[in-house]
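Structure in, sequence out. Go:
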């Protein structure tokens, strides 16, 4: 008979070896290339294999070094997309959460886990100036946005019993792709998502929003919700939240704010986020701008009853009979999933280990890195900014060279990693700062690398 049992000695050796691999990786992360030299062929050669009949034992750890050489590193010179830096105490929290193997469906199935998740959700709500909002953790911003729109519909045009009825949702042209995806999955239909034009700063135009709602009402359609974005993925624009909230109130529409990228910056720069507390629901992503290891999304909402109305479909086998409301609490009544990992432990450990001030300062430093880069771009004759810098995303281009060619070559050089965006129909190089490891020298490396790469293109 083969067995899954591991002796105490073997487990101890395995754990120590795994920990020393983790420590080695963390110690080297800033020295790694900003993107690995790899290809689909190489990764297939290394990792596409069949499951061995006989166990490999500790040899499984030998793969780690190879894996680490073919992943996107979390070092301070990776500026692509919106990718956080995987704070190590959070990573240890994730490990310990897996050790405890809690299923955080409810207080009954995970007494400490459920209580800790409620506590950290409260911290996040406080951090963004929305005390009192309830909610839960989830995989990421996409899951949070999907749940938010499901709640919007159940609040305004209940579909759970009778099925979906036609309705219209409004968001800016710059909205993240997870919103059209959610609209499609909920059966609302992407034709019923109005993409509202933006102003020169790429913020939703409220005059166009009002006009679109009026037009739909006149045509006999049913407006349902407005999705405002607090930190658009391309440029970090914050839609005019107070004005949009006023329109939502006047029109009796649900207001969801997608703060997956930007929302948590309210901890360091609350003045930029006036009106956030007017949202009916708000998506945040602690694996982005709170530096946590993936996955760590969060959906906050004002009205717990609506979460229940949307998500509570209790089958008999999970029915909770406790009298005490704390003990009767169940996340499956308020969110999409039943089995849920103990995501809150990493936040619990990481946020308390460092304290609130350290996170506020890290976000403030990301914001100032973006301003520093913007300043270097403005003062460089060959470069031009393509959008205002509100948060930590900076979109720019070389004035005369092929920017797509610059990007390809820049990534291959491995010194800094940028991604791209399309701004006013122009190809933009894009740097986004959500990394506690980034230094001012790393920021300066962006301009010097772009210029060095552009010069290479001449040869
Ligand atoms: C504004 C915005 N919303 C939603 C998302 C989706 O978040 P996730 O990737 O965690 O699903 C992103 C991701 O970058 C984002 O920037």
């Amino acid at each position: 008979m083969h067995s899954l049992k591991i002796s105490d000695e073997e487990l101890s050796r395995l754990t120590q070896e795994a920990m020393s691999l983790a420590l080695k990786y963390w110690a080297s992360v800033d020295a790694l290339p900003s993107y690995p030299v790899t290809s689909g062929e190489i990764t297939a050669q290394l990792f596409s294999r069949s499951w061995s009949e006989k166990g490999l034992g500790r040899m499984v750890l030998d793969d780690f070094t190879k894996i680490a050489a073919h992943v996107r590193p979390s070092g301070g010179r990776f500026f692509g997309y919106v990718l956080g830096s995987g704070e190590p105490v959070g990573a240890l929290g994730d490990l310990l959460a897996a050790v405890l193997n809690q299923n955080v469906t409810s207080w009954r199935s995970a007494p400490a886990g459920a209580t800790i998740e409620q506590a950290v959700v409260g911290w996040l709500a406080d951090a963004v100036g929305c005390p009192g909002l309830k909610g839960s953790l989830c995989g990421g911003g996409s899951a949070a946005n999907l749940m938010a729109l499901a709640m919007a519909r159940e609040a305004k045009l209940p579909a759970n019993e009778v099925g979906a009825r036609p309705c219209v949702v409004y968001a800016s042209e710059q909205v993240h792709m997870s919103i059209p995806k959610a609209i499609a999955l909920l059966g609302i239909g992407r034709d019923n998502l109005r993409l509202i034009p933006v102003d020169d700063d790429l913020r939703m135009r409220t005059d166009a929003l009002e006009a679109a709602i009026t037009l739909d009402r006149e045509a006999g359609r049913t407006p349902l919700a407005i999705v405002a974005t607090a930190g658009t993925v391309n440029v970090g624009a914050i839609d005019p939240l107070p004005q949009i909230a006023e329109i939502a109130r006047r029109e009796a529409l649900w207001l969801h704010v997608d703060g997956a990228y930007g929302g948590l910056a309210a901890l360091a720069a609350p003045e930029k986020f006036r009106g956030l507390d007017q949202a009916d629901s708000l998506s945040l992503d602690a694996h982005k701008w709170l530096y946590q290891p993936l996955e760590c999304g969060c959906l906050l909402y004002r009205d717990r009853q609506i979460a229940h109305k949307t998500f509570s479909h209790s089958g008999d086998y999970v029915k909770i009979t406790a009298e005490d409301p704390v003990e009767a609490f169940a996340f499956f009544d308020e969110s999409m999933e039943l089995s849920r990992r103990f995501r809150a432990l990493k936040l619990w450990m990481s946020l308390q280990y460092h304290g609130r001030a350290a996170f506020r300062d890290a976000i403030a430093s990301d914001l100032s890195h973006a301003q520093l880069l913007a300043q270097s771009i403005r003062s460089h004759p060959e470069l031009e900014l393509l959008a205002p810098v509100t948060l930590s995303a900076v979109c720019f281009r070389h004035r005369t060279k092929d920017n797509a060619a610059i990007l390809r070559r820049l990534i291959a050089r491995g010194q800094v990693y940028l991604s791209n965006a399309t701004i006013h129909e122009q190809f933009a190089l894009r740097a986004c700062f959500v990394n506690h490891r980034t230094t001012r020298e790393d920021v300066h490396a962006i301009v010097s690398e772009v210029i060095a790469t552009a010069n290479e293109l001449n040869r």
